[in-house]
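Note to self: keep these together.
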Amino acid sequence: MTTRVLVADDEPMIRYGVRAVLATDSRAEVVAEAGDGLEAVDLVLRHRPDVAVLDIRMPRVNGIEALARIRRSAPGTAVVMLTTFGEDDYILRALSGGAAGFLVKSGPPEELLAGVRAVAGGAAYLSPKVAARVVAHLAASGAGTEAGRRAAARERVASLTPRERDVLAHLGAGLSNSQIARRLHVVEGTVKAHVSSILACLGVDNRAAAAVVAHEAGMTAPPGPHPP
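Structure:
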C-alpha cells in the first residue's frame, strides 16, 4: 500500500530534498507540502496523510505545537520530526508530545525512507544520531551521569519479563508490532499486549520514549533478518 506523506519545512530546498528522496520509493507519495506549522496542521486535516514530516522550527506555529494539534485532531497521522544539531530541548518536548520518529536533516537518505516506513507501520524510529544525543542530553541535564542513567535504565528494564525485554529490544530497533511478531514467531496481538505492558512498567507514554530507554540500557535486537 502507498504511504501518503505531508512534508512541512520553511526552507523550500529542504522540502524539495525530502520530496526527492521519497520519490525514490514507489510505496511513498507526497500529497501536500507546507511552509509553516499552521499550514501543516490545516493540510493534515484536509488530506489526512499517513505520515507528517515536520521541521521543529517553523514560523507562525512551530513543529512542537503543530505536533500537538495534529495528535489532537488527526491521531491517525504519525509524525516524524526533522531536527538539526542544537535542538535537543525541542527533541525532548516532541518525544513527550507523541512524535513517532526523529530524523537529522544531515542524515543519509536511507534514514528518511526507513523512518517514514517505520512510523507508517506503527513503529517508532529514532535516528541513531538522535538517540545518542537524547541519551547524552539527559545525562547532562542534571538527570545523573551517563553511567548512572545507563544503570537506572537497566534497572527499569530488569523489571520486564524476558519476552518483554525481547520485544523492547526490537521496538528500539524501529520494528512495528507485525515485524516483531514475525521475528519472534508469535501473533501480533501478543506483541501488542507486551508493548502495552512495557509502556506501563517503564512509566512512558509512547513507543519512541520506550525506544530511548532501550538505547539508554544498551539494548539491541538479536541478529536476524529485518522483516519487510
